[in-house]
Design goal:
about 290 residues; Rossmann fold; Cytidine Deaminase, domain 2; 2 domains; 5-stranded parallel beta sheet
């Protein structure tokens, strides 16, 4: 990247609001490869201290400091921002100490789920002249195309569980409850709520006592790719291996595979099959209709 490209107007005025995990680091690397140096606002309760070394300009804020976050973004000249990294749902509702701006926002929300809250924050940012951009903008190679991603494809039994589980998962995701279900012999063993994918898999393993499981993770019908993008990492493959989960189904083009090469290698080593399925929004309507008839 030439100095002229890195100093172009298109590459200026970028910011990153960082939560936990590797996502913020990947966004920083992806942006830097295009000559973009982001100002980082890191959430103290979630983000890794290693961001201090990864970012050239960084500020730390606590959960609930919306006014301070906006002030810092303006101070850094940010006009376009990316949200990357999870803020655990339980922390949003148990650890948050809202400032006056966020308290006012919370009071105005008709629903207090995570999507409603973060969506409302996104609207406030836009009112402040800060555009919230798709968090996968710099991570195209980590979004898989449809098809089998591993050496092994799901076998007949796993494929039947996936077909059943994707229908269940679409209904759950359509209700904005969770995005992961764990299935055994076309019976739903565990449904994700606020605990996250890995804990859902571990709970299913405890329930079944070590029997073979299949994991299905889908995106929401109106998934806002600016935040809360479905993510699978190497850690999840490790949890699946320990939990005797032998296959994983995800949505193509709407699920991030962190450290993709290492993830696929780990899955192949554990003989776990991973398949990405084309996303079709109409299937959510069909799933809802089937649920009403049952």
């Amino acid at each position: 990247m030439t100095a002229a490209a890195s100093n172009s107007p298109e590459n200026a005025g970028w910011g990153l609001i960082a939560g936990n995990g590797d996502f913020p680091f990947l966004v920083l690397e992806g942006a830097r490869s295009r000559g973009i140096e982001m100002a980082v606002i890191a959430i103290r309760e979630e983000a890794s201290p290693a961001l201090d070394r990864a970012a050239k300009r960084i500020h730390w804020v606590s959960l609930g400091e919306l006014s301070r976050t906006i002030e810092l973004l303006h101070q850094e000249g940010v006009e376009r921002a990316v949200m990357a990294g999870q803020v655990k749902h339980n922390k949003i509702f148990s650890s948050i100490r809202p400032d006056w701006k966020l308290a006012k926002l919370l009071f105005s929300l008709p629903a207090k789920n995570t999507d409603s809250l973060i969506g409302a924050v996104a609207r406030v940012l836009e009112e402040e002249g800060i555009q919230l951009v798709d968090s996968t903008r710099f991570l195209g190679p980590l979004l898989p195309a449809a098809g089998v991603l591993t050496r092994r494809a799901p076998d007949e039994s796993e494929a039947a569980d996936i077909a059943y589980g994707r229908n269940v998962a679409r209904q759950i995701a359509g209700l904005d409850l969770g995005q992961t279900v764990v299935v055994r012999d076309r019976a739903c063993v565990a449904v994700e709520a606020m605990e996250g994918t890995d804990e859902t898999i571990e709970r299913a393993a405890r329930i079944t006592g070590g029997q073979r499981l299949v994991v299905i993770k889908v995106s929401k019908p109106n998934q806002d790719m600016r935040f809360d993008v479905p993510v699978i990492g190497v850690q999840t493959i490790g949890v699946m291996r320990r939990s005797h989960a032998t296959a994983l189904a995800i949505d193509a083009g709407r699920t991030l595979l962190f450290d993709r090469d290492a993830l696929i290698l780990a899955a192949d080593d554990a003989s776990i099959a991973i398949e990405a399925f084309p996303f079709d929004k109409t299937l959510f309507t069909e799933a809802a209709g089937a649920a009403k008839k049952s």
